[in-house]
Structures are given as C-alpha cells and as structure tokens.
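Ligand: nicotinamide-adenine-dinucleotide. Inputs:
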Amino acid sequence: MGSALEGKVAVITGGASGIGRATAVRFAQEGADIVLGDLADGTETVRLVEKLERQAVFVRTDTTREADCNALVAAAVAEFGRVDVGVASAGIATAAGMSNVETRAAGGDATHVVNIDTDAFRKVLDVNVLGVMMTDRALARQMLAQAAAARSSTSPPAQRRSPSRARRRTACPRPASGCSPRSWRWSWPPPGSG
Ligand SMILES: NC(=O)c1ccc[n+]([C@@H]2O[C@H](COP(=O)([O-])OP(=O)(O)OC[C@H]3O[C@@H](n4cnc5c(N)ncnc54)[C@H](O)[C@@H]3O)[C@@H](O)[C@H]2O)c1
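Predicted complex:
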C-alpha cells in the first residue's frame, strides 16, 4: 500500500529550518509536494525537497500577519490547486526554563521568568499562539471549501435522492461510513447503503 501522503499537497510554516524543514523533507520522502512559509529564507528546504523529486514552493510569510497566512494558502492553491495537509511549525522560544533558577535569575538572563520583558513575551504569544491560529484558520477555510466543492460535484441530483438518503447525507451519523471529518473525504453513496 502506498503512503497516505503520496500526491498530497502540504503547507508547512517554519519550513526554513528545524522541525518545519525536517517535516518538509519527510513528507517529500512520502510523496507530498510542499509549500513552505517562513520569515527566513526557505530555498535550502526547497532544494532538499526537489532533490527527492517532489515540487516545493517557498513563500515569504510572517505568520503573525493575517494577510500573510491567507496569502500562503492562496499560493498553495494557485500552484497546486488545493491543500491536503497543514503543519503550523513557525515558532520562537524565549520562555523561561526551570533549570538553574537562582543562577539564571542572578545573572540577569533575559529569558528567566523574573527578568522577561513584557513585549518579548507578547511576541512569543503572537507567533506561537496567534500565528498558529491564523495559519490553521486559513488552512481550515480552504479545506472546507474543497470539501464543499467535492460534495457538490459527487452529490446525485436532488430529485433522485430518497428522503432517507438525504437525511443520511446531512447528518452523516457514522463518519467512517460516509464522510471522514479527519481527511475531509466524501464518498457517495455511503458504503453499505445499498
Ligand atoms: N526543537 C525542539 O525540540 C522543540 C521542542 C518543543 C517546542 N519547540 C518549539 O517548536 C517551534 C519550532 O521549533 P524548531 O526547533 O523547528 O525551531 P527553529 O527556530 O529551527 O524553526 C522555527 C522557524 O520558524 C520561523 N519563524 C519564526 N517566527 C516566524 C513568523 N512570525 N512567521 C514565519 N516564520 C517564523 C523561523 O524563521 C524558523 O525557520 C518553536 O516554537 C520551538 O520553541 C521546539
């Protein structure tokens, strides 16, 4: 059986380094094409993905900017026609660690909880919380639009739909049998419905 990522399109923020880059390379090994968003230059990650004979696009993105998050997803759709997977990996770390508490506090360590600057901490929240939310929101809106388009293109004409089937289609009581919220896949009619 092939990989679940074969032929999929993945949007990855923070893809210029660290976890984001490692994810991009691993996904490419599994057969995915990659759209990278990062403040930093992503061309090395693009090179690594292309070496695996998958396509990659880098979009300069500041995930604390709503317009950038939306533009990243729009770029993926413009390039590949859809988005299948999203990974919000852009992040920064300045939070205080709990090791060597006295030493670090006494030494004036700016990341120690007693010294941390309010604006610096606000930046952490902006990138690690708000940025992730805005990335995920842009991805979810696109995926829902794709799911709606897939439903309308696979749905039978209204006059041929029996009431019981129409109810099943709306309520979808057993996700595994008709639609999968996880993958946004839709099949009609639901398996086993005759
Ligand atoms: N590596 C770990 O073991 C580990 C463990 C726990 C949590 N984390 C957290 O996960 C996140 C990613 O970790 P990493 O090791 O990959 O870090 P990293 O610094 O290697 O990569 C983070 C990437 O995010 C990008 N980035 C930062 N702010 C951005 C913004 N506003 N818009 C777009 N891109 C932005 C950076 O340019 C960088 O390429 C960080 O928040 C980190 O604190 C990492």
